[in-house]
Amino acid sequence: MSRGAVKTLDTSIQLEMRALLLLAALGAVAAATTENFVGHQVLRIVPSSDAELQKVQELQELEHLQLDFWLSPRGLGNPVDIRVPFPSLQPVKAHLEANGVPYSIMIEDVQALVDLEQMQMLRRRRFVPLSTSTFDYTSYHTLEEIYAFMDLLVAENPNLVSKLEIGRTTENRPIYVLKFSKGGTNRPAIWIDTGIHSREWVTQASGIWFAKKIVQEQDEGLANILDQMDIFLEIVTNPDGFAFTHTSNRMWRKTRSKRSGSLCVGVDPNRNWDAGFGGSGASSNPCSETYHGPYANSEPEVKAIVDFVKSHKNIKAFISIHSYSQLLLYPYGYTTTAVPDKEELHQVAKEAVAALSSLYGTNYKYGSIITTIYQASGGTIDWTYNQGIKYSFTFELRDTGRYGFLLPASQIVPTAQETWKALEVIMAHTRGHLY
Amino acid sequence: MPGLRAALPAALLLLSSFPPAAAERLPWPQVPGVMHPLNPSHREAVWAAWTALHYINSHEASPSRPLALHKVVKAAAKMIPRLGWKYYVHCTTEGYIHGENAGSCFATVLYLKKSPPVVHGKCVHAQNKKQIQEEDHRFYEYLQHQKKPITANYIPDSNGNIAHDHLQLWGLAIVGSSYIMWKQSTEHTGYLLAQVSSVKQQIRKDNAVAFKFIVLLHEIPTQQMNVCHMYLVWTLGHPIRVKYSCAPDNHGLEDGSGQDSGSAAGTSHETKGNF
């Protein structure tokens, strides 16, 4: 089963190597004629015997090979890293193999890393990219960068995209929703939100990608949907929490609301909705990660969406995106009672998951919240379903625990691409079965 | 009347063997001794499989290739009177670090009320066991030869990256944390390793390799992040020795001060042996 490209390119490197590459990259920018490292490899040898150590030390004598020892031989058990220029690869490997010295390839192509480093440096030099075409979708971003992206997207597509402020957070940050509409008045709509749990970084990152995808989309499927329906996309559903994950605690999940009488901060925004509120599957302890809050909709982040949904009155599909676990879920979470539309939702989920898997073979499970993960009360889609939004779904994106919330940035785009396939199925089904 | 008398103790037996959180379970008939097949994607089957793998990872103590759950193939559960629920799982596995196909395991997991789960597992390895042993051996010797203690922070980092140099250290953290996760797992609470906050080697006079870890364990379904201080001693060819102390990530009291290391009011455990 493939799980998306987790390449060795996202290897970070030791200080001296980084300095070397920086030097090389800067050199490349300054004068385009300086050295290039195309095809150079970095080999690692860990000598485990005196004989092996000697063979490696011999290599140092062979000047014509132009070997660059990034880590010199130090003794048994200590790694020796050698940058080998392309023409010397054959003789060096032959020398090692003939003498039974095992080696591994740490860097397949030094130039590729140099290029990457250079691109990253260029990106860092500009705080705000000048257009959504130069925005880096393969990196994680700060709140400011995401908000700037939204403004760029609106400016570039004024006839399709607008930005709505639906409320303010506890710490007074604006809560923004992007509206994608080809016109009409109060058309039936699809709602997608990401980042309600702030530590689930791949979700906000995917939300950014979805926004760009919607404006770029040329094919019939999305065009058909937008001819009849609007799409609302809330990329950072928990801005206070998200800012906190960048500045203080990468593992922060909840909102940042404070209440007198408790030292602990924050409410779980996915336990704060008015559906089985306060029941089993949420905690009444303010210090708990699943604290439901003092009352339903106590959190401004939740209330903003509730008010929006109630005043819009025409949302037909509601998709709330989390990570991780690789699941597609439908209601209920607060009770074992099946929803009346269970058969249809189960079928849609089945098709959506099949579409998702077709891209990279990523394995998803699907079912109702309570049977598939655990009982959870006061959850988003339980409330939206009870409001009459039949196509209410929750995603849990990659992965299944190897990196968990700390999903490597290299997996952002593959995750967003495959998730989009599933979203297309749900949106198309909604459009074909408007109620 | 003799008939009624005989029936009463049996009824009491049935009552006493109801697991405490019966309300959380789907309405299966709780008849002792009957094997209930489970949907392989049912959460209890998945978590039983993870509990088994945590046990296997900590007992095989191979930092080069710890195992992760790929898929539950088949699962069933049986109520054992006076003890608890016993899960039977057949699952496929993958390499924890690189995700390669690693084979499959059959395991039984008996959840007890006051002791760690009893796990019996047998795995079929798709990988070259000799190669794995050699990698472990190489890593072990490398660690033994360190004059300056190896230290590192945040594995993986906030962007999910693990430096190539840190991959085997990550494997060692998985092995040690698996011990903790196995011991703490219950039928309704499971764990996954979220991050190594810090790791510091302790140079020892004997042959063993020792590390002080601070790891973050993600607890499901409470969503809590538990901060565990873990002292790990690895002697090649012997079971790993772990001493640990865990507490919930004390986030409420911090305010912009970064990751808290947890309060002293946690659970403290050690394996047998001298440190």
Automatic annotation (TrEMBL), chain A:
Which compartments is it annotated to reside in? Secreted
The catalytic site is made up of 396
Q: Name one GO cellular component term.
A: extracellular space
Keywords of the record? Carboxypeptidase, Disulfide bond, Hydrolase, Metal-binding, Metalloprotease, Protease, Secreted, Signal, Zinc, Zymogen
- Cite the Peptidase M14 domain residue spans from the record: 139-430
User: Catalyzes what?
Assistant: Release of a C-terminal amino acid, but little or no action with -Asp, -Glu, -Arg, -Lys or -Pro
UniProt cross-references to InterPro entries, sorted A to Z: CARBOXYPEPT_ZN_1 (IPR057246), CARBOXYPEPT_ZN_2 (IPR057247), CPA_M14_CPD (IPR034248), M14A-like_propep (IPR036990), M14A_act_pep (IPR003146), Peptidase_M14 (IPR000834)
Predominant cellular place of this UniProt entry's protein: secreted
Q: Which Gene3D superfamilies match?
A: Metallocarboxypeptidase-like (3.30.70.340), Zn peptidases (3.40.630.10)
Record's keyword annotation contains Zinc: yes
Which one of the record's GO molecular function terms can you name? Answer: zinc ion binding
GO terms under biological process: proteolysis
Write out the similarity annotation. Belongs to the peptidase M14 family.
Please give the name of this protein. Answer: Carboxypeptidase A1
Q: Which organism is it from?
A: Gallus gallus (Chicken)
TrEMBL record, chain B:
Entry coiled-coil feature ranges: none
What is the residue range of the signal peptide feature? 1-23
**Which stretches does UniProt call biased (Low complexity)?**
256-268
Q: Which GO terms describe its molecular function?
A: metalloendopeptidase inhibitor activity
* Region of interest called Disordered, as start-end residue ranges on this chain: 254-275
Q: Provide a GO CC annotation, any one.
A: extracellular space
User: Which keywords are on file for this protein?
Assistant: Protease inhibitor, Repeat, Signal
Query: Could you confirm whether the keyword Signal appears in this record?
Result: yes
A Pfam family matched by this chain, by name?
Answer: LXN
Q: Cystatin LXN-type domain: which residues? A: 32-131, 151-255
Please verify whether the record's keywords include Cell division. no
Entries under InterPro entries matching the protein:
CYSTATIN_LXN, Cystatin_sf, Latexin
Q: Which domain of life is it from?
A: Eukaryota
PROSITE patterns in alphabetical order: CYSTATIN_LXN
Name the SUPFAM superfamilies for this protein. Answer: Cystatin/monellin
Similarity comment text for this entry: Belongs to the protease inhibitor I47 (latexin) family.
What protein name applies here? Answer: Ovocalyxin-32
